[in-house]
């Protein structure tokens, strides 16, 4: 499935694409939570690089009475390099990711700790947010401002 028609291998980095991605992710969260409330098993898999993202989604799900599980599969940097190289070689139209970018992104990733993986307590939202819902609406701007999911 193509989300962004005729993207070049570098256009995915643009601020416009980041804004669109955040809005699309927000809609996926909204639809996913509604489906989960109906008893459908839902897997949200679009990064969750930051603990705050995972905490917000765990909080939203918990507030809806939905059970959550954080699943993390660790992949070392050498394997990531191999996969990126293979992806690009198999289709040069795939976005290009330099080794320096890969290392920079790896530094930004916050791996879940054991407490998070075991479903431990959800921390408080970061200031200035009074709730995880407020934080989530800022992170994913397409979420409804009033909690309806």
Report on the architecture of this protein.
InterPro entries: P-loop_NTPase. Keywords: Kinase, Transferase. GO terms for molecular function: kinase activity. It comes from Microlunatus antarcticus. It holds the Pfam family AAA_33. The protein has 149 residues and is an all-alpha fold. It is built from 6 helices and no strands. The chain has helices spanning 15-37, 51-63, 77-90, 99-108, 114-117, 132-139. The chain has a domain at 17-74 and 111-139. 48% of the residues lie in helices and 0% in strands. The model has no long low-confidence stretch (mean pLDDT 89).
Distance between the termini: 26 Å
Helix and strand composition category:
mainly alpha
Number of E-type strands: 0
Major beta sheet, specifics? none
Task: Give the H and E element order.
Answer: HHHHHH
Structure annotation, total helices: 6
Low-confidence stretches: none
**Over the alpha carbons, how many angstroms does the gyration radius reach?**
17 Å
Helices, strands, pairings?
Layout: H1 15-37, H2 51-63, H3 77-90, H4 99-108, H5 114-117, H6 132-139
Summarize the structure.
The chain is mostly helical. It has helices at residues 15-37, 51-63, 77-90, 99-108, 114-117, 132-139. The two termini are 26 Å apart.
Keywords:
149 residues, mainly alpha, 6 helices, 48% helix, 0% strand, P-loop_NTPase, kinase activity, kinase
